[in-house]
Amino acid sequence: MVVTAVVAVSLLAGGLAQWLDYGAEDGGHFAGYLQRIPVVSACRIGGAVGVIWLGWYWLKLARGITSIARRLRADNIMNSPFGGKDKAKASGNAVINELTEALSEHLGGCSNTIGRLQKQVNDLQIQIQLTQRQKGHIEAIIYSIHDAVVVIDEFDRLLMANEAAGSLFNFNFSTSQHKYIGELIGQSKSEFADFLQQSRQNKAQPTRKEIEFSENGEPKTFDCIVSCIYDQDRQICGAVAVLHDVTREKEIQQTKNDFVNHVSHELKTPLASIMAYSEMLADGEAKDSQTQQEFYSVIQSQAKRLNGLIEDILNISRIESGLIKVDKEPVSLTILIEEQLKMIKSYAREKGVSLQDIGKSRVVFDQVFADKSMISQVIVNLLSNAVKYTPSGGSIKIETEVDETADIARLSVIDTGVGIPENEIEHVFDKFYRVSANEKQAKGTGLGLNLVKQIIEKVHDGRVFVSSKTGLGSTFGFELPLATREVVESLPVKCGG
Amino acid sequence: MSRKKVLIVDDEIHIVHVVAIKLRNNDYDVISAENGAEAFELACSQKPDIIVTDFQMPVMTGLELVEKIRQYDQTKDIPVIMLTARNFAIEDQQKEDLQISQCLSKPFSPKELLESVEDILYHRAVINR
Questions:
Q1: Which of A268, A298, A445 to mutate to test the interface with B (most CBs of B within 10 A)?
Q2: Cα–Cα distance, A49 to A123 (Å, whole number)
Q3: pLDDT for A298-308, tens place per residue?
Q4: Enclosing domain of residue B65
Q5: How confident is the model at residue A63 (pLDDT cuts 50, 70, 90)?
Q6: Touching check for B26 and chain A: CB below 8 Å?
Q7: Which of A269, A276, A443 faces B58 most closely, judged by CB atoms?
Q8: ipTM score for this prediction
């Protein structure tokens, strides 16, 4: 009896201790909130209750046996000197029968109890297996999430973190579990720890914040969402944070904003002239017909400029999205260059820049398979850029050559202009990029060279190139694949305008 | 009363032209410059009553021009109207620090610009009286 009671009390105490100590080690990597599901503890408590129950039955059985023994003893005392042997025997049989019945009744009860307990133990074992499997699944899911996941308890101690979180906050989860989150996360990232703790303390609905800190020395932006964790009694027992890296999205957003700013600025400039001149005409501020004519002319030229800008933007957009209509044919680069030189000559003369005639450089007889109007646009953009950034007294020359080994034609526009700083060369073909050192030199949209790159590389599978030295000048150019003999022969050749 | 002198600074020649006509038609003397550096020279030598300048210009921007003229005694009190095609290009604090009287967004109305010039010069005259 005493042994049974001791065992029972021990088991019960053990079970209760297990129940209360939900942060025990046996949870492994799995979070405390799942440890609070008292599967193991319930099993132990159930066992202890079963043992107590058995003890109670044994006690009842012992009492029954004691009572019968007392009665037998009393009967012997009363009957032995005066009663007959038959009476005594009959009385003994009745007691034995009663005893047997009581025993079999108790044994039956015990057997049922043991059976029930066995079934409960089996059920509990199945539940443990199921819980462990669920735990494994949840663990695998959380570990496979690309975003960083951090779980804390109601005392702000780390309960769980996946690899991404470990990498981001530079800690090892297995050695950091149950440590205070504020201590684990360094000062440089304390904004996150503060936000996590505050969200849990405020018992708020899921809260969201963009947090910036550096990862491997690079500035990054994270979209951090913190949700409180509730137990079965709807009490907050911790918080879970998910950090999604939105650095790229932010960059794209910034690029879009810059694009809109640039476009609106570039569009507004000619629009400002158009609106001002038309208002002046409407208000009768142009006093004579000559002034009126001048105003109309400005409106017309600014409208053309506006249209050109819109066309450039749309062309870049169409090329990028693959929606532009391309009309390729075998064309001679030499003829296209001659045509564009005629257009740019007056501008160069106005600026005092000498323009070397194409006739002095090698004529490219070979043809490229290209969209004539697009390549003309490329050549005029390169030439006008060269004139724009070459001071008075400078010169521009055009070189063409054919590399028959590589089957390409190459065009170079070489100027003696202001040049481009080395650290900016790689960006000159970027959309809206303007060389900061030269921004004050001349006006521009930052679209011209980007359009050149798009036309040559995306539409014609060619290559653009640039080399430059500050103060000495720049060379911009492109390479285009030569039209194959089959293509030239299969199409009617159209040269020039 | 002597005619007021306005310095217009913009690298967009058409804008300078149209503003100049509007102001001349309304009895102002107009001088012009294509960039901030040129404008500063004119501001020092010609002492205009007001400067109307573009924000984004080659060589020296509108903001750099205002910063510079605020540093010299002979130019520091000249009121300035800034024209800009970029929204939010100038912060309120910056506007206050540099004593920019008004910012007008491009596209702007020449009539509206004339009214601004008149208002600013009128208030300046009242204060100086």
A1: A268
A2: 16
A3: 999 999 989 98
A4: 5-128
A5: confident
A6: no
A7: A443
A8: 0.91
Q: Which of B35, B57, B108 sits opposite A272 (nearest CB)?
A: B108
Query: What pLDDT, in 10s, does the model give residues B81-120?
Result: 999 887 666 788 888 899 999 999 999 999 999 999 999 9
Domains of chain A as residue ranges with CATH: 2-143 (no CATH), 146-245 (3.30.450.20), 252-321 (1.10.287.130), 328-490 (3.30.565.10)
Q: Tell me the CATH number at B95.
A: 3.40.50.2300
Note the pLDDT tens digit of each residue in A375-426: 999 999 999 999 999 999 999 999 888 888 888 899 999 999 999 998 889 8
> Is residue A28 scored above 70 in pLDDT?
no
How many structural domains compose chain B?
Answer: 1
Least Cα separation, residue A399 to chain B (angstroms): 31
The neighbouring-strand residues paired with B84 are B105
Q: Is B19 on the interface with A (CB under 8 A)?
A: yes
Q: Any residues with CB less than 8 A from the CB of A364 and at least 6 apart, and which? A: A332, A333, A334, A400, A401, A402, A409
Q: State whether A272 and B109 contact (CB < 8 Å).
A: no
Q: Which residues contact A72 (CB under 8 A, 6 or more apart)?
A: A92, A95
Give dist(CA A64, CA A417) in Å, integer. 118
Q: What is the residue-wise DSSP string for A126-181?
A: HHHHHHHHHHHHHHHHHHH-SSEEEEEETTSBEEEE-HHHHHHHT--HHHHTTSBH
Cβ–Cβ contact B13 with A under 8 A: no
